[in-house]
Amino acid sequence: MSTFDLSSSHSDSGRRSGDPRGRSGIRPRRRENTTITPQGTPNRRNTELAMLAFAVVLPIFAYANVGLAMDKKLPGGMLAYGAGMGTLALVAHLAMRRFAPYADPLLLPLGTLLNGLGLVMIWRLDKAGKLLRGNFPAAANQLMWSGLGIALFIGVIVLLKDHRILQRYTYISMAVALVLLAAPAFFPSRAEDFGAKIWIRFGSFSFQPGEFAKIILTVFFSGYLMVKRDALALASRRFMGLYLPRGRDLGPIIVVWLLSILILVFETDLGTSFLFFGLFVVMLYVATERTSWIVFGLLMSIGGAAVVATSEPHVKTRIDAWLDPMAAFAPKPPPGSTEQIGQTLMAFGSGGVTGSGLGQGRSWLIQFAAKSDFILGSFGEELGLTGMMAIFLLYALLVQRGLRTAVAARDPFGKLLAVGLSSAFALQVFVVAGGVTGLIPLTGMTMPFLAQGGSSVVANWALIALLLKISDSARRPSAEPTQATPS
Amino acid sequence: MSDLTLTVMRLGFLAVLWLFVIVAVQVIRSDLFGTKVNPRSSRRAAGTPVQTAPGNGRAAQPTQTAPAQPRQRRGAPTQLVVVQGSLAGTTVALQGQTITLGRAHDSTIVLDDDYASSRHARIYPDQTGQWTVEDLGSTNGTYLDRQRLTVPTPLQPGMPIRIGRTVIELRK
Prior knowledge:
The complex is a heterodimer. Chain A is mostly helical. Chain A has 14 helices and 6 strands.
């Protein structure tokens, strides 16, 4: 039984000597450090199986509920649908049993439940058939994408022997992520994209590279910060309670900031831009334990957003719609205004505390994006505040398991990777939920797992698989026996 | 379908959704209370992998069988502990496996240390079961006490092995 270290990733900062190279003063930190020994059985696969069964049954219940409310009978495909979801979940679970036996028991069931709920809601909106701009049936497509997502999940679980292998590809992943991020800017703008250029299209097939860039960029940030964090943490002056980094150490954060501003300008997508900058700031903070990075990050993002918002018309429209969501209903609506935010707020309002019941709301009245960006509005109307709180808790639990994995991880790269992946997930949920509820300006991102969107589902399943691999190696009760002879 | 049925289903669904959340939190609880937090400075606590339930004992899982430890000679070390450096506090149970140290990410202990080589040293039991440390041609050397290692050297518990800014020792 081995122990793993709670605070190893930042015990470097015990050295705060005046010497900027920080080599001379090697003092172990005087803070009370602790180690955590897991006591229970480390293999929680049976718990996972039980939770997984629950997570499959719950959407089937929702499915029956929708059918009874809308057609007065149980929906015909209920058993087939349940069997499909159940099989997918079971295959994923079996892969876990074989290839990641010690991983966290909750991540897979939580993902399955959110994915299942999303499928039911999309199917329910398909049935409504009254979306104003073309109601393409999307549930079958989404089910196919979920299947692909699970396939990628299994692929990662089976093929990725150790997450530390990813560290080799630090700079390659930077290049790949930059290409993925930049690519949509070079594709011609289309009316269907509603302003934000975050898609790549080949004929009828379209995909949103930002979702994958999120994961690949996290790999780069982890590899990079693991190597550089000493320089970023130690070489600093103290000023008004903050550690001010040296000018040249500000380089990386300025580069990432410029990149996110470029995304904002050329792809006019506030969400992607915020997600990547926020992700970098969070990881910088975790790697160096310096609050000053968060202060800098907030100042820089506010400054950048303010400048772009005043110059870029699309972003400005979004901000105006956020400041006054009901302006679109005025007798003379301002040009370019959208009714969706106002409609979504009304959906939340009509849902009330316990909601109208599945299949009994009128959320198809939210226009074309009811299944994708605004699916939370549909949930808010039909499940009410109670249901929304449960859904947000599901997301919170998922993020918590990710951060817990980071605490338990035994290698610095794994720690940073787990923190980065779960923060990216959390930031995305915040950006979408905040946008839909009117807390922050609306962006073009999708709610992970819930919303319609192939790239999103596939990428998020890959994200969960990576977290599970890190979790597996962190919770493994002993070191791998008999390493190969060193080469 | 009557309104009553639909109302019951609506509230029932919300209840089941919350039940899922609550059950999930219960699973996490066992993760929180099923662990023992040891002060890192305490040698005794770090030296013995405690298997008993913690003070409250409510949520503790039944104790699990420890991985079968081959019975070794009296006084044989059971644990390798990092005592200084960025990984201070990390322990690895000694179970007859070779432990590799270095910056290479596939090492057993990944050293995040500018003075370590990617494959710096290894610690392994020799034919007689005696734990031995061997430098793998590192740039800055592996030190046992103050002596730079040139040949594989037998280890006694408590002898500090220094690699860059990291200090490691075996413990019983």
